[in-house]
Design brief:
- This protein is mainly alpha-helical.
- It is about 45% helix and about 10% strand.
- The chain has six helices and four strands.
- The strands form two sheets. A two-stranded parallel ribbon has the order 1-4. A two-stranded antiparallel sheet has the order 2-3.
- Strand 2 (about 80) and strand 3 (about 90) form a beta hairpin.
- Helix 2 packs parallel to helix 3 and helix 4 packs across helix 5.
């Protein structure tokens, strides 16, 4: 597990997509531990290889696809800046730091990763779309895919929440009881 985790981290740090066999190994190990629980995956599976591996350990009853225009995604991802030491993420459009280019907590400079620059984001989004299309078609053919379209989280979220709530009982925190 350690080797796989290190390889995944190296890929992410270089702005590369983690190879199927690496991400699949990590995900399968974690999901096998949680087979008696409800869980939510975000961004997995992204490829047919990953979907086939997931099929071997479970049967999905709900898949959500968010249809967000290419330009909206590119603009949002390109506006992402990070504080390298802490990993804090800022978005210059909807979660900017108090002082442009400076971390709110440490006062240190923020950086934009190479893979968050507009050209790199556009290439990554095209690659993702090509890889994800067959996965979306697979889940659509099984009748478990629900797609939502829009550009604003606060407009899409109520519909997603209603759908998820109809499948899984809401979890209440211990503090609320």
């Amino acid at each position: 597990m350690l080797e796989v985790g290190v390889l995944a981290k190296q890929c992410l740090e270089r702005g590369l997509l983690v190879p199927d066999h690496v991400i699949t190994s990590v995900m399968m190990m974690e999901l096998e531990k949680k087979q008696s629980q409800h869980w939510l995956l975000d961004g997995f599976p992204r490829t047919l290889v990953q979907a086939e591996a997931l099929d071997r350990i479970c049967e999905l009853d709900l898949v959500i696809n968010l249809n967000i225009p290419f330009e909206t995604l590119k603009d949002r991802l390109s506006a992402r800046w990070i504080h390298p030491a802490s990993g804090r993420v800022y978005n210059m459009e909807f979660n900017p730091p108090h002082v442009h280019g400076i971390d709110d907590i440490t006062g240190e400079p923020l950086i934009q990763r190479e893979d968050d620059k507009p050209d790199a984001v556009a290439a990554r989004l095209r690659k993702y779309k090509d890889a994800a299309k067959p996965v979306i078609e697979l889940y659509k053919s099984r009748g478990v895919l629900h797609s939502f379209s829009g550009t604003e989280t606060n407009k899409i979220w109520p519909y997603v929440y209603t759908l998820v709530s109809s499948k899984v009982r809401p979890v209440h925190s211990k503090e609320a009881n």
